[in-house]
Amino acid sequence: MHNVVIGADGASADDVLAVARGGAKVELSQQALTGIAASRQVIEALAAKPEPVYGVSTGFGALAVRHISPELRAQLQRSLVRSHAAGMGPSVEREVVRGLMFLRLKTLASGRTGVRPVVAETMAAILNAGITPVVHEYGSLGCSGDLAPLAHCAQVLMGEGVAEGPDGTIRPAGELLAEAGIEPVELREKEGLALINGTDGMLGMLVMACADLAQLFTAADITAALSLEALLGTERVLAPELHAIRPHPGQAASAENMRRVLEGSGFTGHHQDDAPRVQDAYSIRCAPQVAGAGRDTLAHARLVADRELISAVDNPVVLPDGRVESNGNFHGAPVAYVLDFLAIAAADLGSIAERRTDRLLDKSRSHGLPAFLADDPGVDSGLMIAQYTQAALVSEMKRLAVPASVDSIPSSAMQEDHVSMGWSAARKLRTAVDNLARIIAVELFAATRAIEMREKLTAGGLRPAPATRAIVAAVREAGIDGVGPDRFLSPDLEAAYAFVRAGKLNAAAESVTGPLA
């Protein structure tokens, strides 16, 4: 994998994913280093003046009223980092920490924070050495930056605290830095504040969630098509001209995905053979409308993320004309809102997928399929409890969809009296994304079994679509068993989840359809 070069103009979502998940190494461009050095000169000039400047020669938050003399300023920055490294709870995932460190480095490289080049260079060296600070679940209110998470990272730059080494062992940060040949940084004016004052944690998690959801929206279109096919539904509702008269782009994309998966199916269009049906149920007929609305929500979230990725989030900030100004750009509201919006979209997508699964299992609504897709209903329970598991996941998704960003709790003696809770929104979205993958996996498991059963039941030798046959074959090759007497289901369901999460469902469909949206 190539190195990610960080310039003064921000970063891309692909850069974040490459560093956070792919382990790509980073390097600072000469342009970035020049800009960093220039802004540092501004800070040093201010530090030499008698007038107080927030973050340079004052305390922080509600303590900003105190002027700090030059001999105490290094201690001021150390104390800031140490006191703010107050996280609690379990450690967050390595990819989250690498993402937030990379994004903080991106802001340092903007030349708007006033740190010395050595601070940025040391952070880059720590990332490249595979050293990952231990960051805890609780400690950020999503305003004044992700303070505690970033402070735990800043502590490691100072050679303090604990971190995970390249081998996955958690050890004192000083030992890990020494082994990697990295000199700890003694922070000077403004530098401690610049290391902790950003929306980097919530932004990194937003970028990763967007990537995951893009894959899962496609997977949901595929499983919706499989369910439609197994239920002998009509593909006529997927016609492009129907979606052109309600021109939401996500809806059109989802409908086209489903149409291409179903192309050549011998099952669709037989929805009136067993019992007259003028229309399919909403969970089948409206699948593109629901998934499409989620796609459009995702597009909006990506727009917000892209704007944030080219932002310099710090307070105070060094402006291009040399002024140093206090501001509120660290407030996480823009990111928090879309994190919550995505959790709502994911919950609704999970909900409609569960309704399709339930329809496949209910003999009164499945149009001739055995009850619970059991081999011998009554003796066998089939997928009855697989749907219970799916329903439990959907119920949790609804709880996770309750917005975090509508909450606020005053802090810092009422100086920071309105906060975004964006970190909390990001943490619950990560759980929601994982739950959604499991819900889609259960629908996949049920729909592929139903397709096989339908093929045996359908007169005239009708066959499912070529893409469907490729998917069923790939699922079985992955060791996920099909029709048969009751067995221990949990391993099959976990294997189906891994199949979806790894993108193998999408790849199986696309081996026939070509790239899907």
UniProtKB/TrEMBL annotation:
Post-translational modification summary for this protein: Contains an active site 4-methylidene-imidazol-5-one (MIO), which is formed autocatalytically by cyclization and dehydration of residues Cys-Ser-Gly.
The biological pathway it contributes to is: Amino-acid degradation; L-histidine degradation into L-glutamate; N-formimidoyl-L-glutamate from L-histidine: step 1/3
Q: One Pfam family name from the record?
A: Lyase_aromatic
Q: What Gene3D superfamilies does the record tag this protein with? A: Fumarase/aspartase (Central domain), Fumarase/aspartase (N-terminal domain)
What GO molecular functions are on record for this protein? histidine ammonia-lyase activity
Q: Where in the cell is it found?
A: Cytoplasm
Q: Per its UniProt record, what InterPro entries does this chain match?
A: Aromatic_Lyase (IPR001106), Fumarase/histidase_N (IPR024083), HutH (IPR005921), L-Aspartase-like (IPR008948), Phe/His_NH3-lyase_AS (IPR022313)
* Catalyses which reaction(s): L-histidine = trans-urocanate + NH4(+)
Family annotation (CDD domains):
PAL-HAL (cd00332)
What PROSITE patterns does the record tag this protein with? Answer: PAL_HISTIDASE (PS00488)
What UniProt keywords apply to this chain's record, in alphabetical order?
Cytoplasm, Histidine metabolism, Lyase
Crosslink 5-imidazolinone (Ala-Gly) sits at which residues? Answer: 143-145
**Residues recorded as bearing 2,3-didehydroalanine (Ser) in the entry:** 144
Entry's EC annotation: 4.3.1.3
**EC category name:** lyase
NCBIfam families documented for this protein = hutH (TIGR01225), PRK09367.1 (NF006871)
Q: Which family does it belong to?
A: Belongs to the PAL/histidase family.
HAMAP family with a match to the protein in the record: His_ammonia_lyase
Could you identify this protein by its name? Histidine ammonia-lyase
> What are the top taxonomic ranks of the organism?
Bacteria, Bacillati, Actinomycetota, Actinomycetes, Kitasatosporales
